[in-house]
Amino acid sequence: MYTRCEILIRQKSLGVMGSSDTEKTCWVEPDFFLSDDNSDTIIQKAETHQLSVKNPDRLFISLDHNIQDNSPSNMARYEKIRRFCEIKSLTLFEAGEGIGHQLLIDGGYIRPGGLVLASDSHATIYGALGCLGMAVTRTDAAAIWHSGGTWLKIPDTVLVKLTGQPGKNVHGKDIALYLAHFSDQGLFLNKAIEFCGDAVAHISLNDRLTIANMAPELGAVAALFPLDEKTTEWYRAALGISDEIREQAFQVIEDFSHSLEEGCYQQVIEIDCGHIPPMIATPGSPMNSRPAFEANENPVYINKAFIISCTESRFVDLSRAARILEGKKVHENVELYISAASHQEQLKAETAGIWQILLDAGALALPSGCGPCIGHGRGVLGKGDVAISSSNRNYSGRMGHPDSKTYLASVEQVAYSALKGKLSIVPEAPLTVQKQISGLEIRHFPDTESEDLVSGLPVSECPDVIEGGVIVCRFPKINTDMIFPSQYLDGRPLDRHVLATIAMENYDTGFRDLVRKGDVLVAGPMFGIGSSREEAATSLAAAGIQCIVAASFQSVFARNCTNNGLLCIEAPGFTDFLLSTISPRLLSVRSSSIVRINLSDKKIEYEGRLFSFEPKSSIENAVRHKGGLLNYLKEKNYV
Q1: What is the pTM of this model?
Q2: Are 172 and 279 in contact (CB under 8 A)?
């Protein structure tokens, strides 16, 4: 038996159904693929490699990240994307229509039992509707545009049983942040999450969208909810779905209702939702989450508040905020910004009078798009700003200046805090919290040698030995906003020299003075967690890094490395040893020793000690050996 996530991936694979259980890498053709403002770099890749476009009816581009930027460079970038869509017949969502993920949902393109990929990490949101959504990279995007598919690793899956019933004023954001509280040690890292249990019936479809959207903040690669009466009703009313497709969708729902076998899952976790209080994430990471009352023990005054993003700014969310703000005014020291997930969601709010209630309370409206969530446009945080937001990430510098602070919470807490001028809990919210995950069961798959569903080039064709100097970055969970700040993702030209100077800017400004060509970067767990931005990998390569060795990687970051020919190795024994030798006062340090990595023997030699690491799949080795995915496709005669 397979998990539901694995079934959906295998159904989209080329000729792999019925293959052995040990096969974990496959070539898939998704139902649909979405890219965004980053499409200009995908177009550049396509033009450089002279790629044609296959299946344009499955390809979508959404202008949503930097829509408030009217500079000539950004306008030229958007015009380039528009021309490409017109010539190649891709579907374009224009600036102001909304965030691409929400637009695919609004348009009825998300279907039960489907597989939809995107070059944006929050593609996981589709799992709320029983459609597997996963993030890939821009290089994958060029491959999908041209060949119709790309490679995927089938992830291990964790089954999360939600029991009980959420309390008053406890919603999807609180459940997501509660899970994040237990994700700090990698509980969900690079795994898919499937939800089940009697509490699911009490969780609205809107809250499921919020929870699934925040799977990347847990370190997960996907999140999948069961198909039940709530999703069935949604699909009955969904736009853009024909009777024939709707009938097929209901058959998938029926099939899914009989496919759950706990023994297939790597872990089974049981959580009583009745014990989850309103949650808040303190600045630095969504994993810094805790019961909201703990963060309110001492007053924390704010000057900005945000109800924005694909996480929690749909009609239902805006309605919840309006119930708190109706007839009242936002605190005089606070600017409250609102931006609907899509223009369609905003129209619903306008028709119901919700939007006007928020404006009358003093909210400042932004066009529908990503905006401040990724540090673009009006409302971005300045030095010293303290904000609370309904968005998904609060990494340093994510929403503006690195010396600002962002707290994450539900729209109710955002609205109530904006009203009070400080972090505040909505009255009558439950104050108890379950300190441990209950009913934790771990089921381990037997250790077997993993095969590939895609035949790659022999591992022996990859270089056998790598030697280089060592740069050690001590901080754990170095995220993509630390590696490559979001403010540089505005369409400006980024050649290798510029990329090299930006690398690790929000982590350690001294990094650029330490690094030398041919170095090996060594880091702790969850390296590269966060965004799917390709520059996080390519900037390190441009700076001279030839290999990254970490205790663990976030899978999309590792994928970016592989697809661009940069080697990354997981070797926790080696990294633990090396990190233990560094002063806790230092962010980065250059070792005086050389590291030698033997890829054939899977050994790392450092100062007379040997450390082992797990091998890559043959396709990962083949892609890296050819200098990246597009060169690999050329070798395999896809290009």
Answers
A1: 0.92
A2: no
